[in-house]
């Protein structure tokens, strides 16, 4: 299982172990087994004896090419089920380039399943893109009043564990979201309420946001890409709710308010 220490990966490992599955956690850094998309000498130890794999791609411009090579390698070493973490927004964007890793997987094997989640709730607790301004008490984003049905990464992981261990998901794309769409202002307001803090939210233009990021040493191309993602939210491109969690797990996904209450108790948003 690649990305075993990431936002979803560590929870996938936990769910699989609770199901009694034997899990080999691999990552480029701290997992027991080292795996590097760009070092094929690490691949045999990762796949030896395995039957299924959860894949988090290389997250760069070479991701599709590396995934294609790995899928061919894995199929030749007995893997019969490959589950890829993608993103619902890539499909909704209309930009085929953002679906390159999905296409690489589907073209390279028959035993695939794709998970397309919305924005993770954990972005507010684990990524400085959202966590840092929340902590600072002032959030400026080019998201307007658009809605996003944030999903708990633990729900994604539980779906992944189910798909990896149950039949009936081959050749299926599962779109995953939380139970309701919230604007970024509503999400920040929820965090303010559960923390008892005053946290301001201001919608800014994409250019203002790019300037803010570049002032904090974010490269311009990355800053513009992030602004583009928030612009999709502003335009309502990702506001719809998907039924994937309910379809696979038979229960509703976790709500943002419950996530925020739990996260606030850890002190992650202390000033």
Folded structure, characterized:
The chain is 44% helix and 13% strand. It is α/β, with parallel strands linked by helices and 271 residues long. Strand 3, helix 3 (63-75) and strand 4 (81-85) form a beta-alpha-beta unit. Helix 1 (9-18) crosses helix 8 (153-165). The longest helix has 15 residues, at 220-234. It is globular and about 55 Å long. It starts with 8 loop residues before the first helix and ends in a 7-residue tail after the last helix.
Jot down its keywords.
single chain, 271 residues, alpha/beta, four-stranded parallel β-sheet, two-stranded parallel sheet, 13 helices, 13% strand, globular, Ergot_Alk_Oxidoreductase
Helical content band: 40-55%
Give the helix/strand class.
Answer: alpha/beta
Strand order of the largest sheet: 3-4-5-8
Distance between the termini: 36 Å
Q: Could you describe the largest sheet, including whether it forms a barrel? A: 4 strands, parallel
Task: Report Rg.
Answer: 19 Å
Tally the helices: what do you get?
13
Kindly state the mean pLDDT as a whole number? 93
The count of strands amounts to: 10
Task: Give a concise summary.
By secondary structure, this protein is of the alpha/beta class. The chain has 13 helices and 10 strands. The strands form 4 sheets. Strands 3-4-5-8 form a 4-stranded parallel β-sheet, sandwiched between helices. Strands 1-2 form a two-stranded parallel ribbon.
């Amino acid at each position: 299982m690649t990305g075993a220490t990431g936002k979803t990966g560590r929870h996938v490992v936990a769910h699989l172990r609770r199901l009694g599955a034997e899990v080999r956690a691999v990552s480029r850094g701290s997992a027991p087994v080292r795996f590097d998309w760009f070092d094929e000498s690490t691949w045999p130890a990762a796949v030896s004896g395995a039957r299924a794999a959860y894949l988090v791609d290389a997250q760069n411009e070479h991701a599709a090419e590396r995934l294609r090579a790995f899928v061919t390698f894995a199929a030749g070493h007995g893997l019969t089920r490959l589950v890829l973490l993608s993103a619902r927004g890539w499909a909704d964007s209309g930009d085929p380039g953002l679906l390159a890793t999905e296409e690489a997987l589907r073209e390279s094997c028959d035993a695939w399943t794709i998970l397309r989640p919305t924005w993770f709730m954990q972005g507010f607790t684990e990524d400085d893109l959202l966590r840092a301004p929340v902590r600072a008490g002032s959030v400026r984003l080019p998201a307007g009043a658009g809605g996003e049905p944030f999903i708990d990464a633990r729900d994604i992981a539980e779906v992944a564990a189910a798909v990896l261990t149950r039949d009936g998901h081959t050749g299926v794309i599962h779109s995953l979201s939380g139970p309701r769409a919230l604007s970024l202002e509503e999400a920040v307001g929820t965090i303010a309420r559960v923390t008892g803090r005053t946290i301001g939210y201001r919608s800014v233009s994409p250019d203002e946001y790019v300037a803010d990021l570049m002032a904090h040493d974010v490269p311009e191309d990355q800053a513009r890409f992030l602004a583009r993602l928030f612009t999709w939210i502003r335009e309502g491109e990702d506001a719809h709710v998907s039924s994937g969690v309910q379809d696979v797990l038979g229960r509703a996904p976790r709500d943002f308010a419950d996530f925020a209450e739990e996260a606030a108790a850890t002190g992650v948003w202390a000033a």
